[in-house]
Amino acid sequence: MPYGNVYPCSCGWIKGYSFGNIFEQSYEEIWNGEKAREFRQKLYDNDFSLCPGCQNLEILEEINSSEPKLISEPPERILLGLDEFCDVKCIFCRSENYKIDTKLIPEDKKDKLLEILTPWLKNAKYVKTNAVGEVFASKISRELIKNIAEKFPDIKFEIITNGIQCTKENIEELNLLGRISMMTVSLHAFYEDTYNKIVRGGNYKKIIENIKYLSELKKTGKIERFEIHYTVTSINYKEMIPMLHFVRDIGAKIRFLGLDCSKGCEDTYKKINIQNPMHPDYNKLIKTVHLPEFMNAKDIVIQGWEYFTGLEPISLKDRLKNKLFSVMKSDSV
Question: What is the pTM of this model?
Fold first, then answer.
């Protein structure tokens, strides 16, 4: 919810369709407002025009086909993304250091954030954070998680982090110990040298140290699910197999992710986007994902992996044809 906007799903998947804003409207005005009911009705009618980025849609059973019903209960799962601050710069995510935006939360709302969110949280079973920044590096996110944990003792947390500040001390300070239903650490390389090429300002040794601590929490049941997220690029695709073995050793699962292009990273994206059939290493990636080590590997999260196994090799003839077409198209513009 950057700047207080409320989205029914990932903002990028739904064309930025917002139900409303928590700083400008009440819970009831947003959750059962006109835009919320319109969105639910479209899903019920199998109209996914607002969801171009999603392929895993489910029909909401609560919606009547002629008139969307009001939903009396708040959501059970909430994703909080109030602060985009991050302490590192991944080359495919950010092109420059993030500057703290003082307009993220209105000045008169900063001390009332938990109060504003309480109607949304009273029925929540899970709170997920932070999908737009680094949860442990954000003062806003840290304070909010700690306050939620104290006020709602039954809520469990789904944490997304780059791992650098995901220490024993921080987990205990935020009252997260034993309350993490899902821990996701982004680690985009197996070797430190490769990591440093992808993550600027990171600390590989500290991440590995923290991951080992998280592994112990997983083994003792204090973390229910543990995943490593690995965005595949031309820089790191050769390390997919050693990373798979590493994840197996720590008792986690790995989710291989396709590459998205963030604003300001277009030039880098073109160079490292190995999923593009025109990339010189494209066919090598396909050979890699079909190696025996990956066959029926229970350590891989299927969602996302099917994309890679579905890629088809491209012949030199087709590559040259596509390159020639691109040149002709460029000349005609």
Answer: 0.87
